Amino acid sequence: MNKLIENFLNKSGKEKITIVILIGVLLLVIFIPTGGNKDKAGDSSGSVASDVQQSYSTSLDYETYIENKLEETLRKVEGVGTVEAVVTIRSSEENVLAKDSEQDVSVSDETDATGGTRHQKNDSTKDTYIYYDSADGSQPYIVLKNMPKVEGVVIVAKGGGDGNVAAAITSAVEALLDIPAHKIKVLKMS
Q1: Confidence (pLDDT) at 182
Q2: Model confidence pTM above 0.70
Q3: Which residue, among 149, 151, 173, 178, has the nearest Cα to 83 in the 3D structure?
Q4: Considering only CA atoms, which of 149, 156, 153, 158 is closest in space to residue 173?
Q5: CA 20 to 30 Å from 34, out of 9, 16, 24, 64?
Q6: In the prediction, which pLDDT does 50 show?
Q7: Backbone torsions φ then ψ of 42, nearest 5 degrees
Q8: Please, is 157 exposed, middle or buried when counting C-beta atoms within 10 Å of its C-beta (0-12, 13-18, 19+)?
Q9: What's the CA gap between 19 and 61, in Å, rounded?
Q10: Residue 70, Ramachandran bin (φ over 0: left; ψ between -120 and 50: alpha; else beta)
Q11: Is residue 134 within 8 Å of residue 53, measured between CB atoms?
């Protein structure tokens, strides 16, 4: 080891820089992940999935998921008691696909025989969607998955008749689903 260090110190400036760069490249190759697991994990969506933004086979599955999460959360609130939630959604999920855009701008200035000028500008854009190969064939690369928007919520709870509990439920649903209070109805369970 000492001999290696002595040899390195005896090298000229160019040789030292070259050796340091080669060692750096070697370390980068060793420690930078290749992304091989990324395709396996994100094969269906192409984006990072959070707890809420999972892949659902239907809008009904998404509604059911939201209802269950609401019921589970609201049961823990003091005074709510038994609770049932009904959620309606506005639309299905929307996938934003990756695309490559080419923009072509052409400008022309013309002068006629009488001295008049005409300035003409033409813009054109061509979008090409990006695909990747998978076991199922060529798939579009999804940049972002927008989950369906919640249209309204009805909560039926044992404690729904109490004004304080109803207000707490309404504010919790507002915060969780980002919908206005007038789209949330809290009712007392019979």
Answers
A1: 94
A2: no
A3: 173
A4: 153
A5: 16
A6: 39
A7: -105, 25
A8: buried
A9: 58
A10: alpha
A11: no
pLDDT above 90: percentage of residues in the chain: 22
pLDDT at 133: 87
CA dist list (Å): 36 to 41, 43, 51, 127, 138: 9, 11, 23, 28, 18
pLDDT at 121 > cutoff 50:
yes
Task: Return the structure tokens found at 86.
Answer: 């009904």
Contacts of 169 (CB under 8 A, 6+ apart): 74, 77, 80, 155, 157, 160, 184, 186
- 81 vs 172: CA distance, rounded Å: 15
Report the amino acid identity of residue 68: N
Q: CB–CB of 21/118 below 8 Å? A: no
**What's the residue count for the chain?**
190
Q: Token pair for residue 2? A: 């000492």
Number of neighbouring beta carbons within 10 Å of residue 169: 27
138-148 mean pLDDT: 83
Q: Which residue has the tokens 């760069």?
A: 21
Return the residue matching tokens 């996938």: 95
